[in-house]
Amino acid sequence: MPPKSSSKKNQASWYHCESCGVHIPSKARDSHEGSCSAISQDEVAPDSEAEYVRSGAIYTRSLQQRNFEVESLKDLAAKYANMLIFVSEGAMQLAQFHIGQHVVVEAPLIAEQPLVRIVWPISEQFLTTVFVSEGDFKLHCTQLRGKFLKISALDPCRLTAAASISLKHLNPTESPLKCGQLQDAIALLKRDMVNRVFCKDSQIHMNFFNKSLTFRLERWQGTVEDALAGLSLDSKPLQFVQVTNVTKLQLIPENSGQQQDKQKFSHRITKSQIGGLDRQLQMVEESMDYALGFRALPAGLRVSRGLLLYGATGCGKSMVLEAMSAVAEERSQGHVQLIRINSGEVYSKFLGETEQKLAAIFERAYNHFPHPTLVLIEDVHNLCPKQDGSDLVKRVSLAFLSLLDQLSSPSQLKGSKTFVLATSSQIEALHPSIRRAGRLDSELELGAPSSQARRDIIRCLIQSLEHQLTEEEVEHVSSISHGYVGADLANLVYAAMLQAQQNPLKLMHLQTALTRIKPSAMREVLIECPNVQWSDIGGQSELRLAMQQAIEWPLLHAEKFQRLGIKPPRGILMFGPPGCSKTMIAKALATESKLNFLSIKGPELFSMWVGESERAVREVFRKARQVAPAIVFFDEIDAIGGERAEGDGSGSGSSVKERVLTQLLTELDGVEALQNVTIVAATNRPDMIDKALLRPGRIDRILYVGLPQSKARREILKIKLRAMPISEEVDMEKLVQMTEGYSGAEIQAVCHEAALRALEQSFDAEQVKWVDFEHALESVPPRTSPELLKLYEDYLKRK
């Protein structure tokens, strides 16, 4: 007998057949006799049109889209409405369903995967007709319409809570998404799947920015409790899985076969393919091992879960990230979760969506516990800049910092297996708060490689190429490629290979490429010096030898100086009258020594903004250390190194000039050592330079570049006149005598003026005559005053 209905109307709506034990609608009583015997033998009754309730299950062919409102659910969100199936009150009572119970909707005669929904009562007038929401009907139930369906209660023994779920993207070509976008879609899909129940091969649909995505549930892993419960002999196999807030969603990559995996890993960068960063790779690997649990942490030691790699562009930061992901996958045997955050793809124009994306990414990272998660962030200064330009940037920065705080939160274990590895090429643009303890509290600089590191990089670059380079030739290229970072050396080898074409790579190809590929670490300060050689400077042989001894020898033959215990001078000051080739000597020094040459003019360092002038000085020396060995040339150093006033308010260090001088003194001989960087300065007024700048340990060698003597003037004239057609009547010795007291620049002006005088007389002139030189000597008199020469003599006596 059927259970008692709550109303007489319900009693009149159903008829109980004693023969087959089913409850059918009363209006189908007459037609039931033909199918009664079939139902009694087979509860599926494939050839019957009957719809009935028996043994706690509803059998029906009437599945329709709900087109009416349920007053109690009018404010229900679409996400939860799609989880409901609507059944009449009488059918629910006869099947012994209760409101909110999970039921299984399956088609026994077809190979469709069952659906699990939550049952909800509706009016008794619908009897065996069941309804679903419009969205659920279109996405999941269209193929079930008209099929013979069985709706039964979900047995709790067949249900487990999922610890992790693996999904496969079924329509990647129809709805192409970038890797970062697909990961964001998975994070949003997780929110829609929470509290829903699925089975293997269930298809999950979602709309992601007007793109229809379809996923298939490939496999899942239950919780530890469910796994232990499944060990009992009388338990049924677990067929259904419920998604919870702690369930981790993983995306199975497309073409995940064995051959594709081999191809994928064959292109991955490993530590063996990175040269010159052995120490840095070891430090990053140790930090990652402790944070991800690959190495036992000493008791009581707090592990750092955030590391910042910073340095100039092209130094290998991205390659380190790739190598560490390969190490993490190898150590975890594929159980590590790799999350890449591209700061450019995170930002959205919609309010709050950027913060939502970040929260979803870090939720996915923290919920992967107990398995490790490696979060890789490139150009982190874009996510958390120092200058908060807009409200959006401020909100994103605060949200990002808050998420990082959970890395080392003592109140929860969310970040206990998470490690954040971030990079930045603009460390000065990064917000200082991100570098405090508990966030990105470990830092490692990847600077311009040394000569030995450049040698290792070149070896890695040419190991797979056909070449005829010896170890000595590789050593030679690495020794003259100062300031070249890894990316520059890769461009260098690429340019050399283009030149070699199908022939083996040789030294001459690299030497030719060196003339075209410039070091990126020097782009902001590199000057295009004329190709000035020592042979282009007349005279000054003693000065040239002194400069070579002070600069070239210590930098190019450092081991010999160490053997003899000699310390090279830290800086050299050249002083003398204007036009005596002080700047030209510095340029020849840069050309001949093949060292990085930074030319700084005093007024360039001054700024109207407080602190900017000192920062400019620090930046000059930071770049010099970065591209060492290098020469920093200060032209007209008296503009920034002038003597400080005494006895008045200006001596308090409040002026910009004095602050710049103080910063310069600190950089020359401060706490941070200035290794393999030589200072060369030039001035016309040595008496105006502060005494502290010229003490030993700073600019400790002073060279006088005076007016050229007769021998030097003869050499200068030969150099200037060798490209000029002169008449036989021009007496070189007489010119040498008549140019006494002239500087080198004035002698050059005399030659130039004589050539112009010849053109004035006739454009057809083929030679410069003696009369032209006489006219030039009258037009260009010597301008070095005796008073200035007397000043130099007195200074030489005092120093």
From TrEMBL:
The keyword Membrane appears for this protein: no
Top-level taxonomic group: Eukaryota
Entry keyword set: ATP-binding, Nucleotide-binding
Coiled coil: none
InterPro entries linked: AAA+_ATPase (IPR003593), AAA_ATPase_domain (IPR050168), AAA_lid_3 (IPR041569), ATPase_AAA_core (IPR003959), ATPase_AAA_CS (IPR003960), P-loop_NTPase (IPR027417)
Pfam families for the chain: AAA, AAA_lid_3
Protein name (Swiss-Prot/TrEMBL): ATPase family gene 2 protein homolog A
Encoding gene (name): LOC108014276
